[in-house]
Amino acid sequence: MGRWLRFGVVQGALVLVVGVAVWANTSRVDAKVALTAASLLVGVLLALFGQTYQTGADPWQLFFIWALLILPWVYIVRFELLWLLWLGLLNAALGLYFHTWGGVMNVWFASSEAVFGWLFMLNTIALAVWEWGGKRRNWHVSPWSLRIVALGSGVSITLLMMTYVVDTTPSIASVLVVYPLWLIALYGVYRRWRSDVLLIAGGCVSAISVVTLLLARLLLWEGAWQEGEFNDDRYCGIGDGRRGRRVAEATTPRGFPMTRDADDLKARLSQAGIIINEPTTPVPLGTPWFVRLLQAFSGWLAALFLLGFIAMGMVFLVESPVASLTIGLVMISAAFGLFRKAQSDLLEHLGLAISFAGQLLIAWALAAFWEAFAYPFWSLLGWSLFGLQCALALVMPSQAHRSFSAFAACVALYMALVANAMGPVASGMALLALTALWSNEFRWPTRINHVQAWGYGFWWACWPFRD
């Protein structure tokens, strides 16, 4: 296809979609979609022009000119998706500009890390304008579009703060003032002015990440850890996670917007002689998924730091199979206790991480033990791990752990059978076990959750071994 034909195809498509937008009313959805397509075609046209004539322009200029050309359409149509596209183009242009030149005319924030500061200012201004327009000008702004813009602001300032923690750069020292103010503003706006638990949970994740990185630098990189500090700091991740959970749950609305109307309706129905049957016990409210995600993240983070501190003082474990086996069993027992007492996702995921680490230590000890035998090493190791995972799948009081153990048992069985040239049998045995469980699922009503967890593990195992 010649260059004139390529230009003609792109320009013809551009004229066509602009014609559709002109023919339709700008308030209609088809006009908004047409102008969004036209905005994308403008970028295609600019990229084709640069590729054909080799203009030598910097990449950031493409995105900046693209955003500049479509700005009238963005303002006219006021379509959320188009606004997000335009803001994304500005972010890309700004990031590529810093990547090319390292600063704004080498005067303001001339370091390469300062790009996060400029991206933070851009996205924060955009978020403030959108919030103001939605409240004062009745702009139609969905919560998810605001959350995307807030994500750009939060990620930028968090990365800038983490950059300063890792490498204390004087040119970005102002982040020490801006970051706490941003956290305070985030909590004040989305707790008092407009309730949004997801954004507050994101702020908690940001604070936990920064504090964790700061502790890692002070305790690990700079060697400032001293004996006696372990008991004070090892649960920092857990404490942060719990504080984040309390902050997030405190922002949960205490009632629905229609509560008063519902009470009025109940009163009118009662006056009319209509009896309303209501449950005697209140229905418990479930924890939002993003709060559970925050708890899970905190659990794994706390587990990683706890295991890291243990590894610092127990390097000899990898040299002693007996010590590895002993500590591994102790950690699995501790995980079992956590699962029995777990009332939150944080403790459950903490138990998962501790159990997985204990299983690795046991696997290491078994590998060192079977290495001296003449029988095929992988067969012995596979059967040993198969027995371990079967036992864990039966006794561990955690649905996620049962599923993982069932999957790991299939993997260990496959490893043991491959050593004897019987690898394809493993997939058939996993499929047979899965079929037996699903066919008799309701025969054990008291253990139906256990059966489902094992079935999920066998189902996952059928995929990698299906060939």
Radius of gyration: 29 Å
Termini Cα gap: 43 Å
Percent of residues in helices comes to over 70%
Secondary structural class:
mainly alpha
The SSE order reads HHHHHHHHHHHHHHHHHH
Poorly predicted ranges: 105-110, 224-241, 251-260
Beta percentage is under 5%
Strand segment count: 0
Report the sheet with the most strands, covering strand number, pairing sense and barrel closure: none
Task: Describe what this molecule looks like in 3D.
This protein has 467 residues and is mainly alpha-helical. Among the domains are: 1-101; 377-467, no CATH class. Helices cover 75% and strands 0% of the residues. It has 18 helices and no strands. It has helices at 3-23, 29-53, 59-77, 80-101, 115-136, 143-166, 175-193, 197-221, 230-233, 236-250, 259-271, 289-313, 321-341, 345-370, 377-395, 399-418, 424-439, 448-462. The longest helix has 26 residues, at 345-370. The chain starts with a helix and ends in a 5-residue tail after the last helix. Mean pLDDT is 75; it is low at 105-110, 224-241 and 251-260.
Q: What is the fold's blueprint, element by element?
A:
Elements: H1 3-23, H2 29-53, H3 59-77, H4 80-101, H5 115-136, H6 143-166, H7 175-193, H8 197-221, H9 230-233, H10 236-250, H11 259-271, H12 289-313, H13 321-341, H14 345-370, H15 377-395, H16 399-418, H17 424-439, H18 448-462
Helix pairs in contact: 1-2, 2-3, 3-4, 4-5, 5-6, 6-7, 6-8, 7-8, 8-10, 8-12, 10-12, 12-14, 13-14, 14-15, 15-16, 16-17, 16-18, 17-18
